[in-house]
Amino acid sequence: MAKVYATGKRKSAIAKVWVAPGSGNITVNGLDLDGWLGGHETIKMKVRQPLVVTRQAANFDIKASTLGGGYSAQAEALRHGISKALASMDPEFRAELKPLGLLTRDSRSVERKKFGRKKARKSPQFSKR
Description:
- The chain has about 130 residues and is α+β, with helices and mostly antiparallel strands.
- The chain is about 35% helix and about 20% strand.
- The chain contains 4 helices and 5 strands; from the N terminus they run E-E-E-E-H-H-E-H-H.
- The chain has helices at about 35, 40-55, 70-90, 90-95, and strands at about 5-10, 15-20, 25-30, 30, 60-65.
- It has a 5-stranded mixed β-sheet with strand order 1-2-5-3-4.
- Strand 3 and strand 4 (about 30) form a beta hairpin.
- It is elongated and about 70 Å long.
- The model has no long low-confidence stretch (mean pLDDT about 90).
């Protein structure tokens, strides 16, 4: 199996992901997963979720670069990219990832601010008189 490329997205974050056969190393922006996310264990679990679901955690090396958004959105973009790469490798992986929603791009993003409003929906205080 050769190296596979995929792009994952979430909010304004983008993850470029390369998945290759290996020993289970995850490198993001030149750092290992622990160096990149520090002590955020639940977010690390999100990143590893596609590998755990397909039982391939020790079979593939992942090299990724992320940009835009915060670390949480970048991690979810990374999860999306890993899922897309695995699905393109093997149709059986797709059958496992699809029901869990890991191949769906989470399109929720910040709503824009409207004029005459304090935020996207918050109105100024109403005064009858």
